[in-house]
Amino acid sequence: MSKEVDSLHTLEKSSFDKPLNGDNDAAGSLSKQYKVISSRDADVTLKFQEEWDSQVPEITPEQEAKLSRKVSWYIVTFTATVNLMLYMDKATLSYAAILGLFEDTNLTTGEYNNANTLFYVGFILGQIPGVYLLQKLPVGRYLTGLTVSWTLIIFLSCTMHNFQGVYAVRFFLGLVEAVVVPILNNTMGQFLTSKEKAAAAPLFYSTCLGVTIPAGFIAYGVIYAENTISGWKIFMIIIGGLTFIMGIFIFFFYPDNPTNVKGFSIEEKIWIIRRVQKSTGSSIEQKYFKKYQAVEALKDPITWLFFGYIFFSQLANNLPYQQNLLFEEMGGISNLDSTLVSVASGGFAVVCCILSWAFMWKFPNTSAFSAIFWTIPSFVGSILAVALPWDNKIGILAALCLASPVFGIPYIIMFSWNSATASGYTKKMVRNATIMIAMGISNLISPQLWRSNDSPRYKNAWIVQIVLSFSAAPFLCFVIWWILKKRNTERLAEMDNSEKVGVIKDEDKEVVVNLATLDLTDLENKTFLYPL
């Protein structure tokens, strides 16, 4: 099954209406010429395609432009909103820290860092069962269950009164949120072409970088609220309520794949499947775990280069959470001031995300160099944060605001690129789980870099970030680009005019299909070209 087809011969388009069971010689001939798999191993959209594909005409350029806008508005807006709430929930502890949490729970700085670390312990432990369930369960219902779980946990946060309670809440929040981002990223891959997905990544993830805008304004209002309960509890209740409302929308409207998306006609669903398979060269969804694809994912050096990139870059991930505490230690900056600065910082990050999206839409296949470019502000800001005299508060504040918000953009681009450069549904899921584990391990370490005895300059933490997050990580990004470009060059030289087709074999028939429907990996399918 993993051997590559050496010879692909040209066939007419629209192959789903071409069963070959009536001609044994023809079937035998095709079995020799094309990659042949059983329908069980094919894309889950196969039955839908077999039923409707022959009845749907080719899409016109005008129809495709309209469909692209409709899909982008529906999918990118929906997934980005879920992502926004996810990161608002993650940020609750950071804002609670300036709204009285420390006083009510007697939490120390060390315990606060431990709580952030325990979030990622749960995050790591949730990856393997989470990815397995993602492949087995309907995506929409699975995401609904996860959303309900993390809503309950946010509400339970109001009961925290000591560090043990804080630890428990953060651990279980990490556990249930472990695979939410892979789910959202996977959904975008099911609906968007390679170009659309690469360009949309900064817009999608602008919600996690810009989370300080809505969360900051909510915290601003809570600071001035006159209530008998603590401000951080009010903040938790508001965030939990918003998450609950979002869960209702997920239950009714979140799609499993293009075949059951609400508000789209049969014709539009077929067009979505066709354009995604043609663009990406890979399957849309597969409900059977394929061991050989998992093994291939772990043997592919690209997997570990992405692992290294995510690990190094995420060592800086505690910086946004640490930012409010750094403001306090600088002196002269009130809780209100730090909240407003975080809002401005988030706004700056969103603007940078929009610029990144515009560039990548205008110039496709620039993921690697875009990621390297957007590392520069954090690199410069980190050096300034260490080098400037401590009495230069304005300069340090400016350096902190330069370093903190935009380092997430390269991570955003690389996370999306990681998924786009793997074909084969199981391989893609394993690849995603691998880098999420890298993220989790890195974030176990990240809070511990900010040791209280290094206060107030935290030079060791800044040096680690400068050397690993903002120097070594972009170098790995370049290495990935170089290897994938070399693979593409070799494939283009051998591809000629081969047709991207294969054969799905049932007990009573064989049907010619698009090669993407076969759910082959990128190393099996030599016609697969890596997006750069």
Automatic annotation (TrEMBL):
Keyword check for Transmembrane: yes
SUPFAM superfamilies from the UniProt entry: MFS general substrate transporter (SSF103473)
GO molecular-function term, one example from the UniProt record: cysteine transmembrane transporter activity
UniProt keyword Magnesium present: no
Location in the cell: Membrane
Any one annotated GO CC term: membrane
Protein name: MFS general substrate transporter
Organism in which the protein naturally occurs: Cyberlindnera jadinii (strain ATCC 18201 / CBS 1600 / BCRC 20928 / JCM 3617 / NBRC 0987 / NRRL Y-1542)
